[in-house]
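Teaching assistant's notes for section 4

Start the section by putting this record on the projector. Ask students to predict, before seeing the second block, whether Aquaporin will look compact or extended. Collect guesses on the board.
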Amino acid sequence: MPKAELVGLGELRTAVFYRRLVAEALGSAILVIFGCGSAMTVDTGKAPTVITIAVAFGLTVATVIWSLGNVSGAHINPCVSITMFVTRKISLTRTLAYIAVQCVGCTGLGVEILATFVLVLAIYASCDRLRSDHTGSVALAIGFVVTMDIPWAIQYTGASMNPARSLGPCILTGLWDHHWVFWVGPTLGALTAGLLYEHLFHQRHFVSRGFKSRGDHNTRTREEDHKEHQNILLEHDD
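Reveal the predicted structure now:
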């Protein structure tokens, strides 16, 4: 891997730099809310276990890497960013900016909005055909995101993330209290995630600009990007 510029002030003039900062802040927020949230409970009779916490944290990190790794590298940890700087993988400018937004990324939204947001973000990332860093099962990856969502969200809303899934039980039981939450929350979360990925994180914003899909190193060429675009167009025509 080529060494990054030591200071890297030139990055401040690129749109990609700020896309990466948004990705790091978002990834850090997801880690704190879903990871730490899995260790908290509003019902003393349903205390989390070490296993559920470990699974939630592991799947949260995997979800962030899967969804945003192509944008910023998905460090979501100042220690990782500092080490990357010391070994000349990223510049000082990006290191300091990453650490700042990683710390700022500790915020929260409505449970259903956020749970569905993360799910749809992963779906869009999985369906981004310009990405070359996804070699595993898309279906399994999306299923793992649902698994990651549940330990934190289930104690508050049941972790629906799907208006239709919530509608069925309401029809059968006749219980409609706060049913609107399961329509408004997932819808807003899904719309936000889809629009954010399409206009900020989609791989088309990074190809033909000298960035490889991991989002960290200047190794791709315009010829490689052009060839990749042509292959995708040929597959679409078939």
